[in-house]
From TrEMBL:
Keywords per UniProt: 4Fe-4S, Iron, Iron-sulfur, Metal-binding, Oxidoreductase
Protein name (Swiss-Prot/TrEMBL): FAD-dependent oxidoreductase
Keyword Ribosomal protein: no
Gene3D superfamilies: FAD/NAD(P)-binding domain (3.50.50.60)
Domain FAD/NAD(P)-binding span(s) in chain numbering: 9-124, 355-467
PANTHER family reported in the protein's UniProt record: COB--COM HETERODISULFIDE REDUCTASE IRON-SULFUR SUBUNIT A, FERREDOXIN:COB-COM HETERODISULFIDE REDUCTASE SUBUNIT A
SUPFAM superfamilies the UniProt entry points to: FAD/NAD(P)-binding domain (SSF51905), Nucleotide-binding domain (SSF51971)
One of the record's GO molecular function terms: oxidoreductase activity
Source species of the chain: Solidesulfovibrio aerotolerans
One Pfam family it belongs to: Pyr_redox_2
InterPro entries linked: FAD/NAD-bd_sf (IPR036188), FAD/NAD-binding_dom (IPR023753), HdrA-like (IPR039650)
Length: 686
């Protein structure tokens, strides 16, 4: 079919996710119609002062991406245009478009639809105890971001003076059930507040939070820096905000962790507002038959993270759930791949060389399937004897799906496709770039084999760290989370369930030295296991010692369910971490109960440690391709937000745990994104 006769792919939304999806599709040879309800491209990212991941300015980078979109000949951009509904079947969908501010509509035929219309910030005026809109110096985090982006400095509205004291109040419009249902964590609010606190070094700064979630890349390091500069973190929820003397400043009350009512007075209070679907987006999704999940965002499957319930319609960005800007870029490319596969037109050029995918875990399998679905030949190389990676070895349930079963289905699909050559028990031992692409040498059971490939995706996994703490390796009852999951797999019966289990979080992560970052998935894994234990044996005593429970997005449901089932939670100060010892034949865990102001001692049958994932064998592969790595040893992308799966050498991409710790659905999205970026690269060589 001639390209001029193809129906375009419709991308709704001109934010970061929509821009990435539209440009990837266009470069790959697909006609694209991008609609934006506003008057400019860039979405929320265009108004940010800096990236939460790096603290670097972002507006010029987003503007550059927007300019590339506007200039591409296969891209048509229409402003003041909104999507109202989608009907029909994949390949020939009917989209109803409306004009912003007008009542007129039109129908167009499109091959596929990518929903990237984003979310809306929570409007806190309905929460009277926060006095937003009543007290002038109560502002939102968006207002502060606008001031920082304007480069005029942050001032309090009442008198235009720089604030000498600021209170950052978290979870406004997130993690709440009254006066409206907003149960999900909005994922980036803590990171935004930490960055804003760093931008106000002259002020006394206090951050009020239920949990300070530092999972966004760079946030823990920024938090360490902010605390060194005087930022105070209080675990409390301020209420009854009122104006200070002469109508300037803000006073409020809060209950501290010991249950004592306290008061504070600041020049300015900043409400960290969450996000949710707008009424217009809800109406569009309802009219299109697109299902929502329990958290109120578009429902997706962890193994198809950008596919909606309606075939041919895909989602990218915060419409599918809260996430940072880098995830929006990833999902934009992933949605572009899915749309390209749905159109079922192989993009030019018809590359004679395959794409080499290194790693046969969930990310490598998803990447291979995505490439093959777009007509691209693949060579998949796995060092072990079987496909599947960690999910096969350590079966768990993630977001309602059994990982072992899901990954086994992916492996079966990969092995059944004629366009994918699978090589197990094989390792890449040499690589060199040529004018035509790449050449390499594989060590196989039959000897060295030479290969040629046009591009490569590194989907190498990782392993668990083995810190020398808490008797790990010296007492068989002390296990890492993956070891405990394996143990439960071989002891699944209720009578096998331990009577007392203790989890200790942040073992070897969020440190001042070594692994400084949050390990991202440990809290969710611990809560999954804790919930399963309580359901298997309701009378069991299950306790979690934690610094902050980090369950971003809809993972907040796990935290809610664990508390409902009676899991005990004890927050600990990293300077006074829990102690583990043997008392006779027993294990004993002693920690501080901050709420009661006294120590607590438990004698668990099993002690489960949340340790971070670390690179395994990655340095050797990085050296083969002369690729840089980060401090902890993960692969370093070209840009952590705008090009998060592109590696610094042309034709090389990465996905999954080799880029750093992340939940399984994000690994799959990265795999799809890497597949699309490889297709884009090969198309650009034509």
């Amino acid at each position: 079919m001639d390209a001029r006769d193809r129906l375009p792919v419709l991308v709704a939304g001109g934010g970061l996710a929509g821009l990435r999806a539209a440009l990837d599709l266009a470069v790959a040879g697909q006609e694209v119609l991008l609609i934006e309800a506003g008057t400019r491209l860039g979405g929320g990212a265009a108004h940010l002062a800096a990236l939460v991941q790096t603290g670097q300015p972002v507006q010029a980078l987003v503007a550059e991406l927007a300019q590339a979109v506007a200039a591409h000949p296969r891209l048509t951009v229409r402003f003041g245009c909104r999507l109202e509904s989608v009907t029909g079947a994949p390949g020939e969908l009917c989209a109803v478009l409306g004009q912003t501010g007008e009542g007129s509509t039109e129908q167009i035929r499109v091959a596929a639809v990518i929903l990237a219309t984003g979310c809306s910030p929570f409007q806190p005026g309905g929460l009277d105890f926060l006095a937003y809109g009543v007290v002038p110096d109560v502002v939102t985090s968006l207002s502060v971001e606008t001031m920082l982006a304007a480069d005029g400095g942050v001032v309090r509205p009442s008198d235009g003076c720089p604030p000498r004291s600021v209170a950052f109040i978290q979870c406004v419009g997130s993690r709440m059930h009254q006066p409206e249902e907003r149960p999900a964590c909005s994922a980036v609010c803590c990171a935004v507040s930490v960055r804003q606190a760093l931008a106000l070094p002259q002020a006394r700064r206090t951050l009020y939070a239920m949990d300070l979630r530092a999972h966004v890349a760079g946030t823990q390091e920024a938090l360490n820096q902010a605390e060194a500069q005087g930022l105070t973190v209080r675990y409390a929820r301020p209420h009854t905000l009122a104006a200070g003397p002469d109508g300037r400043g803000v006073t409020f009350r809060f209950i501290d962790q010991q249950g004592t009512e306290c008061q504070d007075a600041v020049d300015m209070a900043v409400l960290a507002v969450g996000i949710g679907l707008s009424a217009a987006n809800r109406a569009m999704l309802d009219a299109s038959g697109v299902e929502l999940g329990r958290g109120g965002f578009v429902a997706t499957d962890p193994y198809a993270p950008v596919a909606t319930s309606r075939p041919g319609v895909f989602v990218a960005g915060t419409l599918g759930g809260p996430g940072e800007a880098s995830l929006a870029s990833v999902q934009g490319s992933a949605a572009a791949l899915e749309a390209l596969a749905a159109v079922r037109v192989s993009p030019p050029p018809r590359e004679p060389l395959p794409v080499l995918v290194l790693g046969g875990g969930a990310a490598g399998l998803a990447c291979s399937l995505g490439l093959a679905g777009c007509g691209q030949r693949v060579t998949l190389v796995e060092a072990s004897a079987r496909l599947g990676g960690h999910p096969r070895k350590h079966p768990t349930v993630w977001k309602g799906r059994e990982t072992k079963e899901a990954v086994a289905q992916m492996a079966e699909a990969v092995q059944s496709l004629p366009g994918i050559t699978v090589m197990t028990d094989a390792r890449l031992i040499a690589a060199a770039q040529t004018p035509q692409g790449w050449t390499g040498s594989l060590a196989t059971p039959l000897g060295t084999q030479e290969i040629a490939f046009g591009a490569a995706v590194l989907a190498l996994g990782s392993g668990e760290a083995r810190p020398d703490e808490y008797l790990l390796g010296r007492d068989p009852r002390v296990m890492t989370q993956l070891e405990f999951e394996n143990w439960r797999r071989t002891h699944p019966e209720p009578d096998d369930t331990p009577q007392t289990v203790v989890f200790i979080q942040c073992v070897g992560s969020r440190q001042r030295h070594g692994f400084t970052a949050c390990a991202r998935v440990c809290c969710a894994q611990a809560l999954c296991a804790a919930v399963e234990l309580k359901k298997s044996r309701p009378g069991a005593q299950v306790a979690v010692f934690y610094r902050d429970i980090t369950t971003p997005g809809e993972s907040e449901d796990l935290y809610t369910e664990a508390r409902r089932l009676g899991v005990l939670f004890f927050r600990y100060d990293p300077e006074r971490a829990p102690r583990v010892e043997r008392l006779g034949a027993d294990l004993a865990v002693t920690g501080e109960d901050i709420l009661l102001g006294r120590s607590v001692r438990l004698r668990p049958d099993r002690l489960v440690l949340a340790v971070p994932v670390v690179p395994v064998g990655l340095a050797e592969t990085a050296a083969l391709f002369a690729l840089p790595t980060t401090g902890p040893g993960f692969l370093a992308p070209v840009h952590p937000v705008l090009l998060p799966v592109d590696l610094p050498r042309p034709g090389l991409f990465a996905a999954g745990l080799c880029l750093g710790p992340k939940p399984l659905d994000e690994s799959v999205a990265e795999a799809q994104a890497a597949a699309m970026r490889a297709i884009v690269y090969l198309a650009g060589r034509s």
